[in-house]
Amino acid sequence: MIRVLVADDQALVRAGLAGIIGTAPDLQVVGEAADGARAVALAGELRPDVVLMDIRMPGMDGLEATRRITGSRVLILTTFDLDQYVYAALRGGASGFLLKDAPPRELLDAIRIIDRGDALLSPSITRRLISAFAARPSPPDPGSLPHLTARERDVLLLVADGLSNAEIATELGIAPGTVRAHVAALLSKLKARDRIQLVILTHRAGLIS
User: Fold this and answer.
1) Mean pLDDT by 10 residues, the chain (209 residues)
2) How far is CA 171 from the centre of its chain?
3) How many C-beta neighbours within 10 Å does residue 196 have?
4) What does pTM read for this prediction?
5) Could you give the C-alpha distances from 4 to 31, 32, 136, in angstroms and in order?
6) Which CATH topology does 140-205 take?
7) What are the φ/ψ torsions at residue 40 (nearest 5 degrees)?
8) Please, where in the chain does CATH 1.10.10.10 lie?
9) Helix-strand-coil percent breakdown of the chain, rounded to 5?
10) d(CA 62, CA 37)
11) Helix (H), strand (E) at residue 11
12) What sign does the CA torsion over 27, 32, 34, 38 have?
């Protein structure tokens, strides 16, 4: 059972999200918060697997709450498709960013994806986000990454290209379990929280132009 905390300042939105989550047999809402401070407190008390976090809330907003939450994965859910929110959410440690106009099934799938340790971005902003990071004027720093094996470098480049584990396995002719092991090693060596941070580190290191 995936335990979910819902944080949104609108009671009707919280009720709607809880209702959607309640239709899934493998998901359970364990708490609700109307502001960021309450979300941080409940996350520490209830230890949910995933926190659905709104951005614009009174007092402490969702971005600050995301930075303060540890031990739970955060999925940002917002009506605002704005670049600065995406960047701030990812820097703050969020594992995903989804727009509120996503279909219910996409929301449920997103929670499951976040729970198993993968990252997720709304399809409408994924390519723009990667392009924006790649276009930043800061010089590449190839020395910022520790030594990687040739196979780990191959896997990293394919992760940065947006391929799933299954697609990487097909591309390299190796087993999916081997890909998962390489991705786990990359996350550990690069001290990255998820695949999104691997993509950012790859661009910053100048491995992809």
Assistant:
1) 95 94 96 95 95 91 90 84 68 81 89 82 59 52 66 88 84 91 88 78 71
2) 24
3) 22
4) 0.64
5) 7, 9, 35
6) Arc Repressor Mutant, subunit A (1.10.10)
7) -65, -45
8) 140-205
9) 55, 15, 35
10) 9
11) helix 11-22
12) negative
